[in-house]
Structure formats: structure tokens, C-alpha cells
Specification:
Elements lengths: L8 H4 L6 H6 L1 E5 L14 H6 L3 H10 L20 H10 L4 E7 L26 H11 L3 E7 L6 H8 L6 H18 L3 E5 L6 H4 L1 H10 L8 E2 L31 E6 L19 H13 L2 E7 L9 H17 L13 E2 L3 E10 L17 E8 L9 H4 L10 E3 L6 E5 L3
Parallel strand pairs: 1-2, 1-7, 2-3, 3-4, 4-5, 6-7
Antiparallel strand pairs: 8-9, 9-10, 10-12, 11-12
The structure holds 4-nitrophenyl 6-deoxy-alpha-L-galactopyranoside (JFZ).
Keywords: Glycoprotein, Glycosidase, Hydrolase, Signal
Pfam family, one: Alpha_L_fucos
Family: Belongs to the glycosyl hydrolase 29 family.
Length: about 425
């Protein structure tokens, strides 16, 4: 009999992390929705407009007729160039092993035909197609895992607003909207990741988060495969969940005891697409590699976000960054995928531009992010250089700290980062 989890955090926390997730290291995050139509400011467009933010009021005044509402944008979310196979091919070439799509952001518009979001979903209005299904199929075709981002709250859902007005003493929204929607998502699309968000106005007891997690872990069609993040109510983030996102762009720079994920967006200003984005606001490949290497070395995964356009295209500058990452991983992927943190993460004293990973003879399923213990065999240590060491003095980096022999293999791959494999003689 497989273990059954009780709907409380202490029991849910006992669940071992499904191995695929720790091995994957790299994922792609997509913020796509009605906000991709104005594609101005950020994916918080609607909220900024409702809060009378002057920048947004003026944008509306200048570009749209009086009385134009946010809902009026939905029919322009056309996705006519959306080719899921093309996207999946790009993500696969970037080296990503999983893809997480916004099934619903705070605006409440669903990219799948939610049975409780009449005329506010991608089949009823806009693309007139099930975007979640089409992308899920294409991503799996390339042997990547598919996951969904799902906002717990919806800014302007009247049922949510009523619960909130009653100080969350009623739970009509989670009962009649959120959980039925999430169960529809899980049953119809079998996602491997549920990336919860928009949890921060209420406690996990309002959301009833532990009950849905117990269902996911015990009885859902994805019970062996599913991983969830940590945004399940006030005070839960960084404490409970299969992996921790903590805050956005979380990158603590030191080893973490629990599996974590660094979610960041290539457009430094926004998660959703912005038509007026300039080159300076886009992360460079050097910055992307620094995030990747420092994160993986400390036990994390990276989830790299791009915002597609309302037409269903991915801007060439994002394509270029993703393909550069893929080129680097093609050569250096051995130092990233399936690795574990080593006993040291980086050379803070000697050279802060060197980060380590290692591969163990046996994968530690119980604590995947633990450093090798005294009884564990390390197959290889990887030193990843974000800057070529001065005077080529490579030996200095490992001198004295380990019994490792001189490097037997080096790859000089690009001007951005190099990896070096160190093995026993
Ligand atoms: C991935 C992002 O998640 C949330 O934003 C957050 C949520 C939590 C924190 N946090 O805990 O620091 C910061 C931004 C969303 O509001 C945002 O639009 C985007 O989807």
C-alpha cells in the first residue's frame, strides 16, 4: 500500500520530491493572457488601470475610445500565429526540460475552457482554441514535462470579492470556482507542475490548500509525477511545497536545505509581453548563465520566463537568448543536468566566478539537494567558470581543498562561461 498523505503540512512535507524535477534543472515559464493585448506596463495592466494609475489611464485615453473596458481587449487576443510545435521546438532547443504556462493569471481569464469562466476563457473569446491542451501536447511530443501556473485569487471575481468582504469567513470562491477549475485542469491535462500564485491575501485555511494537495498526492491522475511550489496562503511560501520559490528572482547564493526554484523573467521589467520593451531591459546571455550556474550549484532549478505576444509569437530577442542558452547547454549540460550540489558551492575567497556541481554514484532521492556525505561516491566534480581564471591558474582553485587530480577535460565553449570536469585518477 502506498503511503496516503493527510491534509496537513507536517504530513504533506514528508512526500519525497519526484526525481524528474530535480534532474531537470531548467524550465520555461510563459505569461500569456488578455494582458498580452495591451502589452503595456506589465501583466498587472488591469489592476493598474482600476487603481487609477495615471500612466495607464493616459494610455487608455490616448489609444482607445471612451468607455473601453479591459474585457474589450479579449477578442483581440487572437493567437493567429500560435504554432505550438514551433514553440516546443524552441523551448527544447533552449535546453529546458519543462514548460509552465499561465492557465489563469489574476485577471481570471483561463487559457483552457473552464466550465466556470463563461465567456472569459480562450475557447469562448479570443483565440477560440484550447491553448493549454495545444501547448501540452506539443511540449510532451518533445519529451518535456508540461506544467500550469494558476492564480488562486482573481482580482475582480464577485464570488472572491464577497469572500474577501466577509474577511474570508466564507469559502465560496475556493469551493465553487478555484478547486473545481484546478481539478478540471489536473484531470483533463495531467500537468506535472502546479505553480500556485496569488495566494497572499488569505490564509491556507481559507484556500483549503492542504486538502487539494492531499488529493493531488493521493488520488489524482498525476500523483507520482506532480510537483507543486510554495504559494498556498499567507506564510506558506518558503516553508511548504515540493519546491520553494520564496520571492521572485530568489537566488540566495548559498546552499539551501530544501529543493527550490529561481523564477525570473528575461524582460527585467515585466512577466507579460510589453511592446515598448527596449534592448537594455532584456537580460543578457551572460546574466542568464550566471543565474543558471549559481542556482544549480546551490540546489535550485531555474524557471526562465518569456511573455508571448497576443498573436502567438515569441519575440526574436527572447528566441535569441533561449537558443544561446541551448548552445551553451549542448556543450556544458553534463555539468548541469542530473547534478547535485557539491561540498563547496563557490570559491568566494579565491574566485567568486567559479561554481561547483557534482554527480554522485547513487542519486539521493530522500534529500536531492544534500551535499555528498562521507559514504557517498562522487563520480565527478564540475567547476563552472563565469570568468576565465587569471593567468590560467586552474589548479589554485582546487588546491588544498580536495584530493582531486588535475582536470582531465576542459571545454572552452563561448566567451560567457566554461565548465571543467574533475575526476579521480
Ligand atoms: C510570477 C509572478 O508572480 C506574482 O508576483 C509575485 C508574487 C510573489 C512575490 N513574492 O513573494 O515576492 C513577488 C511577486 C504575480 O503577481 C506576477 O504577475 C507574476 O505572475
Amino acid at each position: 500500500m502506498p503511503k496516503r498523505y493527510l491534509p496537513d503540512w507536517s504530513d504533506l512535507d514528508k512526500r519525497p520530491l519526484p526525481e524528474w524535477y530535480d534532474r531537470a534543472k531548467v524550465g520555461i515559464f510563459l505569461h500569456w493572457g488578455v494582458f498580452s493585448v495591451p502589452s503595456f506596463g506589465s501583466e498587472w495592466f488591469w489592476n493598474n488601470l482600476e487603481s487609477m494609475n495615471i500612466k495607464y489611464i493616459e494610455f487608455m485615453k490616448k489609444n482607445y475610445p471612451p468607455g473601453y473596458t479591459y474585457q474589450d481587449f479579449a477578442h483581440m487576443f487572437t493567437a493567429e500565429f500560435f504554432d505550438p510545435d514551433e514553440w516546443a521546438d524552441l523551448f527544447n532547443k533552449s535546453g529546458a526540460k519543462y514548460v509552465v504556462l499561465t492557465s489563469k493569471h489574476h485577471e481570471g481569464y483561463t487559457l483552457f475552457p473552464s466550465k466556470r469562466s463563461f465567456s472569459w476563457n480562450a475557447v469562448d473569446i479570443g483565440p477560440h482554441r484550447d491553448l493549454v491542451k495545444d501547448l501540452a501536447d506539443a511540449v510532451r511530443e518533445k519529451a518535456m514535462k508540461f506544467g500550469v501556473y494558476h492564480s488562486l485569487f482573481e482580482w475582480y471575481n464577485p464570488i472572491y470579492k464577497e469572500d474577501k468582504f466577509k474577511l474570508f469567513e466564507t469559502q465560496n470562491f475556493p469551493k465553487t470556482k478555484l478547486w473545481p477549475d484546478l481539478q478540471q485542469l489536473v484531470n483533463d491535462y495531467n500537468p506535472s507542475v502546479i505553480w500556485a500564485d496569488g495566494d497572499w491575501e488569505a490564509l491556507d485555511t481559507y484556500w483549503n490548500s492542504t486538502a487539494i494537495l492531499a488529493w493531488l498526492y493521493n488520488d489524482s491522475p498525476v500523483k507520482d509525477e506532480i510537483v507543486v511550489n510554495d504559494r498556498w496562503g499567507i506564510g506558506i511560501n518558503c516553508h511548504h511545497g515540493d519546491f520553494f520559490n520564496c520571492v521572485d528572482r530568489y537566488n540566495p547564493g548559498k546552499l539551501q536545505p530544501h529543493k527550490w526554484e529561481n523564477a525570473f523573467t528575461l524582460d527585467k521589467v515585466s512577466w507579460g509581453y510589453r511592446r515598448n520593451m527596449i534592448l537594455n531591459e532584456v537580460m543578457t546571455i551572460k546574466e542568464v548563465l550566471r543565474e543558471l550556474v549559481s542556482t544549480v550549484s546551490c540546489g535550485g532549478n531555474v524557471l526562465i520566463n518569456v511573455g508571448p505576444t497576443k498573436e502567438g509569437t515569441i519575440s526574436p530577442i527572447f528566441q535569441e537568448r533561449l537558443l544561446s542558452l541551448g548552445d551553451w547547454l549542448n556543450i556544458n549540460g553534463e555539468a548541469i543536468y542530473n547534478t547535485s550540489p557539491w561540498i563547496y558551492q563557490n570559491d568566494t575567497l579565491e574566485n567568486e566566478n567559479v561554481w561547483y556541481t557534482c554527480t554522485k554514484l547513487q542519486y539521493n532521492a530522500q534529500s536531492p539537494t544534500a551535499v555528498p556525505g562521507p559514504n557517498e561516491t562522487v563520480n565527478a566534480v564540475y567547476a563552472i567558470f563565469l570568468k576565465w581564471p587569471e593567468n590560467n591558474i586552474l589548479w589554485k582553485i582546487v588546491n588544498g581543498s580536495t584530493e582531486l587530480s588535475l582536470p582531465d577535460y576542459a571545454s572552452v565553449t563561448s566567451q560567457h562561461a566554461w565548465s571543467l570536469k574533475l575526476t579521480h585518477k
